[in-house]
Amino acid sequence: MSSLPIRVFLVEDSPVSLVILQRMLSSSTDIQVVGTARNGIEALQLIPQVEPTVICTDFYMPGMDGLEFTKQIMAEYPRPILVISASVQPDNTHNIFQLLEAGAVDVFPKPGAGLATDYELVKQELITKIRVLSGVTVFTKQRRFPVTQSPSSGSMPSGNYPTSTGSRIGLNTGPKRVLAIGASTGGPQALQAVLKPLPASLPFPVLCVQHISEGFLQGLVNWLKAECRLHVKIAQAGEVPLAGTVYFAPERSHLELDRQGKFLCSVSPLVDGHRPSVTVTFNSVAKFYGKAAIGTLLTGMGRDGAEGMRAIAEAGGLTIAQDEKSSIVFGMPKEAIALGAAQHVLPVNDIANFITSKVLPKKL
Fold it and tell me: Maximum CA pair distance of the chain?
């Protein structure tokens, strides 16, 4: 591990927020704030001189906002960018996800003055995110998700996959097939790449688990809803998943299926450090849908989802992991591959086409 500090540059127009961020980061011996700026114009002048490892930026700033700043950074001085913003209201979060589309890696709620316990939790979460981002390799926006030819499918048979599990558990009143997706760091961009090409007539539902800072899930849903042809929403307990709809696990809740295939949203203990957990959802999908399940594990830190993907594979389902080259953080997919749970390893831009060409009917 390198002994050099992680060099962080802060772009923030609020003096109070800037002081709080500096105080938080100064508590870590492996992080050094090497510069600050009030807006994107000032930052662009300073960044070539200070050469930061990670850039943290707000969205709303005078002169040049975070979106234009991110676009220019990713075109001229590509660095991992963390968006730190108070804009977690539904009418503002779409703007935050435009920054991710422009090349930022992750989002984090702007810390404020609060209880000491809350301060410590937020501080540790922020430090952890910056440590993760310091190991991320980014490219100019044009190379963000390289488009390559899909590798040969090998043992993947052509034709349709089964449409029924044989009702091993109970009567499913919804579709007889499902696509389950798990993602963490870099997930919003990867989810966009996978979901956007899928047709509105997709004959089965999509269940998604995305690790994201609290308060940003609805913004992610709103952004993807505008980007995709599928309907996108947050799952609610008691719903039967419908074809052509993307469901996200609610914040702080595991997403599972009951014996009738309806959603269960539970606050049972964290799994692999997360709630919602990808593995919890994948295990439930494997149990209910069996060989009709499709499990896809995208970019992210840690190992959440690896055991769940193995459960889908062992149940006879189809499993796909995002490859290293197109992953922001090759953690979760790597763990699934190491377990032998990933039958196919693909660039993120090839996953939707792989599913539609191999699993779906020829005409939708």
Answer: 64
Nearest residue to 334 via CA among 326, 324, 343: 324
Strand residue runs (E) in 21-62: 31-37, 54-57
Per DSSP, 203 falls in state S
Q: How many residues can be counted in the chain?
A: 364
> How many other C-beta atoms can be found within 10 angstroms of the C-beta atom of residue 166?
10
Task: Provide the b/e sequence for 334-364 (b: ≥16 CB within 10 Å).
Answer: bbbbeeebbbbbbbbbbbbebbbebbbeeee
Reading the chain (364 residues) residue by residue, the pLDDT tens digits are 457 899 999 999 999 999 999 999 999 999 999 999 999 999 999 999 999 999 999 988 999 999 999 999 999 999 999 999 876 555 566 778 889 999 999 999 888 766 677 889 999 999 999 999 999 988 665 434 443 333 333 333 333 444 434 333 334 455 689 999 999 999 999 999 999 999 999 999 999 999 998 889 999 999 999 999 999 999 999 999 999 999 999 999 999 999 999 999 999 999 999 999 999 999 999 999 999 999 999 999 999 999 999 999 999 999 999 999 999 999 999 999 999 999 999 999 999 999 998 777 665 5
SS3 86: coil
Q: Which of 58, 106, 211, 253 is flagged as catalytic? A: 211
Give the chain's domains with CATH numbers: 6-143 (3.40.50.2300), 178-358 (3.40.50.180)
Determine whether 184 is an active site residue: yes
For residue 37, the SS3 value is strand
Name the catalytic one among 58, 106, 304, 323: 304
Catalytic residue among 184, 213, 284, 326: 184
Mark whether 211 is an active-site residue. yes
Active site residue 231: no
Helix and strand numbers (H, E) in the chain are: 11, 14
The whole-angstrom separation of Cα 130 and Cα 34 is: 14
